[in-house]
Amino acid sequence: MSQYSKDVEAIAALRDAQGSAWSAINPEHAARMRAQNRFHTGLDIAKYTAKIMREDMAAYDKDSSKYTQSLGCWHGFIGQQKAISIKKHFGSLKRNYLYLSGWMVAALRSEFGPLPDQSMHEKTTVPMLIEELYTFLKQADAWELNHYFREMEEAKQAGDDAAVKKAQEKIDNFETHVIPIIADIDAGFGNEEATYLLAKKMIEAGACAIQIENQVSDVKQCGHQDGKVTVPHSQFLAKINAVRYAFLEMGVEDGIIVARTDSLGAGLTQQIAVSNEPGDLGDQYNSYIDGEEIKDPSEINASDVVIKQDGKLVRLKRLASGLFEFKKGTGEDRVVLDCITSLKNGADLLWIETEKPHVKQIGGMVDRIRKEVPDAKLVYNNSPSFNWTLNFRQQVYDAWAEEGKDLSAYDRDNLMDVQYDDTELGKVADEWTRDFQKEGSAKAGIFHHLITLPTYHTAALSTDQLAKGYFGDLGMLAYVEGVQRKEIREGIATVKHQDMAGSNIGDDHKEFFSRESALKAGGKDNTMNQFG
């Protein structure tokens, strides 16, 4: 017996036990509403999606082709339409997630207006967006199931048993649109207590995976900008512990922590790590700080900061800002140390922020990490901050140069030029770009591929195209040809925007509640009927 059928029976028994007071309650309608609202709290969602992610991680460990993907979504509607689209085109949402980007929260959701990615936005906006995303995903469940229930009722009225059975199968085998969200908590928005409090709010809203980075919270920068400042490992591990405690307190025992290192591009540190003995974690961190050897203590000035590195007295290179510089060329070594340390101290997945999408570079670091932690896995940012076209054309150029291939027809510094689009190099670069996720997962330990802010760009591009035509010579044809006609022909559900917003669900509920006296919106004068 299906869950829906069980619910009908159970609610019927409950109604009958109440006597005539509940005579207006239709058990089928109540069971239908229950089916359309499977998740009652954010914690229900966090527990459900954490289990999905853990299963996906285990599947990837056995087969690297089973990597996962997501797109960053800055509004609940965008996340909903992404999930509906994936399900429509591929039949399932398996191994597909949502990403909540701190960059997009700052740029698009702050009450201060558009802000840079520097943790200046209201931190409560992050859990609010998680809740919003899941509200829209749950509504997608209700919307799709509502159509199936309508199909079943129409088939019953027509006496079509085969159609009833088909609709029932759709309901019984329904796959929810509620999928995991990897949520960006930046550098924790303060000290470890602040990180814990915000993590709790995010988990309560439904987050099963929280990504945290090793930058200094109050001078946090976007991973693709200059001026990044990292913290000693002990401070970062305290915040990893804070997130884990938040998961445990909320009962999400298999919650996922993604530890992000910005050390590849971060040349600065605010603090010298505490070290108790040579070779400990603090000493390793400090060994990367730039300085000059001092032969005589008399050379030390009043404001100098001096430590021992490899048994030598070293005056650290200190900037006017009070920050210390790391030695040039130490970025990869620091990344590897960060990652090993995080995984050995509570993190589940890694995020290495790189300056370009290069499988060999990423794989080289992961190989080193896996010598210490064999099942190390990455969440990787397929970032819009990369010039993907230029990067991959230059990678192909460099590979061909190593092979001794004639490159006289190409200018490496100008490979973005349109003249190279139809060349052999341009086509091979496009193939490498297309295969980046597959190759990165097979050769560089990338479990999850995400694009942080794609829908920021798609919203801008589509709006530009519509505005260009509508306010220009095309007028209304710009919308009809560029939007509505495509929606109709490509089966985009939003063409019936009233239905997508819940009009039919509301009509059905009115009928449940008011029966024949219900005032419904979906009659013959509803212009939505023009779309079939």
Care to describe what's here?
- By secondary structure, the chain is of the alpha/beta class.
- Among the domains are: 36 residues, no CATH class; 297 residues, Alpha-Beta Barrel (TIM Barrel), CATH 3.20.20.60.
- Helix content is 48%, strand content 11%.
- It is built from 19 helices and 14 strands.
- It has an eight-stranded parallel β-sheet.
- A hairpin with a 2-residue loop joins strand 9 and strand 10.
- Helix 12 packs parallel to helix 15.
- The longest helix is centred in the N-terminal third of the chain and has 34 residues.
- The radius of gyration is 28 Å and the shape is globular.
- It starts with a helix and ends in an 18-residue tail after the last helix.
- The relative contact order is 0.10.
- The model has no long low-confidence stretch (mean pLDDT 93).
- It catalyses: D-threo-isocitrate = glyoxylate + succinate.
- Keywords: Lyase, Magnesium, Metal-binding.
- This is Isocitrate lyase.
- Its cofactor is Mg(2+).
- InterPro entries: ICL/PEPM, Isocitrate_lyase, Pyrv/PenolPyrv_kinase-like_dom, Pyrv_kinase-like_dom_sf.
